[in-house]
Amino acid sequence: MDPLHDLTLGDVVREHSRSRPLRTALVCAAYRGTYPELNARTDRLANALLAAGLGEGDTVLWLGQNCHRLVETLVACAKVGGVLVPANWRQSADELVTVLDDVAPAVVIWQSEEIGAPVQEARGRWGGTARWLLHDADTHAEAHTDTADEEAYEAFLSSGAPGDPGRAVDPAAPVIALFTAAFGGRPNGALLSHDAVLSQALTVALVQNITEDTVYLNSGPMFHMATLMTTFAALGMGGTNVMTRRVDAEELCRLVEAERCNYGFFMGPTSAEILELNKDGRYDLSSLRTFGGNAAWNAMIQVDDSPWGTHPAGYGQTEATGMLTFNALGIGATGTSGRPSPWVQVRIVDPEGNDVPAGETGEIVARGRVLTSGYHMRPELNAERTRGGWWHTSDLGRREADGSISFVAPLTRIVKSAAENIYPAEVESCLTRHRGVKEAAIIGVPDPKWTQRVVAVVVRAEGPDGEAVTEEELIAHCRSLIASYKKPSRVEFVDALPRQGWAVDYDALDQRFGGGGYPGIGSSI
Amino acid sequence: MDPLHDLTLGDVVREHSRSRPLRTALVCAAYRGTYPELNARTDRLANALLAAGLGEGDTVLWLGQNCHRLVETLVACAKVGGVLVPANWRQSADELVTVLDDVAPAVVIWQSEEIGAPVQEARGRWGGTARWLLHDADTHAEAHTDTADEEAYEAFLSSGAPGDPGRAVDPAAPVIALFTAAFGGRPNGALLSHDAVLSQALTVALVQNITEDTVYLNSGPMFHMATLMTTFAALGMGGTNVMTRRVDAEELCRLVEAERCNYGFFMGPTSAEILELNKDGRYDLSSLRTFGGNAAWNAMIQVDDSPWGTHPAGYGQTEATGMLTFNALGIGATGTSGRPSPWVQVRIVDPEGNDVPAGETGEIVARGRVLTSGYHMRPELNAERTRGGWWHTSDLGRREADGSISFVAPLTRIVKSAAENIYPAEVESCLTRHRGVKEAAIIGVPDPKWTQRVVAVVVRAEGPDGEAVTEEELIAHCRSLIASYKKPSRVEFVDALPRQGWAVDYDALDQRFGGGGYPGIGSSI
How far is B380 from chain A (nearest CA, A)? Predict the structure, then answer.
């Protein structure tokens, strides 16, 4: 470590509390806090975590929706060398037990509202021990009398001593982990360092024009890098992050108007809902700088005509703290994903790690500060993904003659439902746990609203279990084991899966059952 | 070192050669080269430097004016762990000998045009050995037949093997050193790492809107950070750097028109000259985005109305790779220097290192990647400047109530002539080397064109030498020993220097001899 040159996420908040003492850092329902308050509250939380025994590299699991306390927990971890893991709150109790096993958290911060039941079920079934803190005890306790005895986040924070913990923290050490991908049917927590988060924050600020005047509506889930990249940029530049518990079009409108939000994260369907519900202009959304749409939409907001606003795509993955390439850095390029962000290295290689010629497809590999420090507790996978000193993305890409990059397809195909990646292997492994299923293959079929829907192609098991199983039963089986959005919307029964050599021939399945619309262009995050 | 996450200046050029193969990297007189050519030429130069025995941390001294070869040498050093030192070419032979002694270069790259005489004189008098390469042998040889036997830069470069040298280079290691300040009458070479250069490049790109479409006219001296900060940003973003040997208003106009330069570095007097010589519009300068001026100027160029364009100042120093604070990051702030750049830490402290309250003056201290790795060969000074893990700037500042920062004054007062800092101690030590001088003090008096002129206040030595010395003689004495712009324009003789305790009372001298106009606001670089 090098105190003169090192910079951590904690340092950034320390500086803002000196240089931007009047700026609002976080807004969340009734809560509103300045940067000095963020610094002071995270000092207390950091000291409380130390007192609770949190050690360097220990994890704090966030089982809740979007909240200012998620950012506080991140900054407190940053100040003492802890690692925040914000989990997908839409997961089933089964999935949450797997997450708990995998993360082995020292502290769990959980939420009773909306998701209390699966969280409590998972907690009961999990074999490990942790300090459990209920973050919404104050706002939600009356609705859940059974949480009256739970230790509350706010009480825990207040128990911490004031003043900077003064710990030396290595900026190359991880500060956050996000779950991603499911190669082999199992999600992995990608560890990201202070260096990665801060380098990407500055790059995103540059590309998306994020400044201290940015008021960013965190309107996507904060366990997902697509939302979080800009959260980091707004935090890094000393802007304001406005939280909303989950995506609700009317609440988003209310927040944009009330907080004069000038930036946000909106998926297409959400924008359509906003357009519909605000067609009478009941909400003033004129502060919002965002992508252009039809005339009614453009009249409602400020059309972002910057390179990013007109070309808001690129290629990236959670393991790269978000984007690796931006169309905004290669406008006019022939590649579909633009050019690398400043200060990352990208190559297109064959299985032996040699560069493939321009125009030919290979695996995208990358280096630079934004790259993950590896998956939490996956030494073998990490060795494989970092072979030769380059991060292997498991994505196929192509270098065009003008040097720009086209994302081609995941080496492992992904089904896309709204912003969510659904990994066929994960749903398939869930289906084959059913006694009536011998084999299963997942394809995505185009959906006008959510990009794709999941379709399962199933070979029945031999015997009475296989004969009896129904479409309804398999869908219910999946819903009970994995997040609801991953369940098949349709099941097709076949005698055998088509194969090319050992591998299932997904193209043949697509042809037969209407598959298509895979995320083949732009970002795979 | 960490190959997956480390990024060097060499890596940035490697990536541009893949991602921006058609972009022009460098333009210099008849030379024009793309990024792949920059990558290929610096591979050869790097290999030639290795073959010549350049080791890690060894220095390459640039004794020339602005040239694409200066950037090539920087990138070649970056690829093999060398350190480029671009020296002020306006120095006298005496000063150049001091630089040679101090840098102890393994390789010197020198120029015959305009500055060949003092360089050759210094070379003759210097006691050390180095490999001397004449960079302008091709373009200037006919004018200097005495250089016919000199080893030429181009021949040396061509002697290097093609292909990447493939050396692992630590991004925390220095890659460039710039001379600055003269505390105790002696300039010091501030070492700057890859990390520092790249972090500042990204920050400058963000603040000044530098992109791959930037065509930057390097119209200030490249041994000075004020010019070089933006050179780094344009190089980092994959833009084009256009060189000009030295500042000549008509040549700048010609280059802006010919290369469609859209960015440049212009001091006020140069802008005034351009305005005058182009009042008939003979040059088309409409590509240039720059600060606004009077109506005639604004009609000639594109007025930059960005935060930077309207508030193009801040506080910084060479030891921070340029700016530490930007007015563009604190528009509307009460402090005169704005707010810190992203990812640096700034505090205002008393002599014991404790924070002083807002509104009170203290020394500006800073941390972050942009900070120097220390002065070349100055272990004691480095220990003093980095005490407590913070870089002590030797500048006084004040934190305002809104968190913004005001630069107050150098702890050591500086006289400013155009972009150049003149350190009184250096000129004073030159004067006292004259046998007729007992004591001397330097003040700056306001100058309508160049900010300040140097005035010397001198106490004659006792005896005939002191009695005989004249103003003309002392000015000529300075011109023979230090750069011409540092010489006094006037000498006042006094019986004794006024003092406060042990220290010369410069305020009293200012009052008596018309001193004032010191750089008290904005940048001290």
Answer: 17
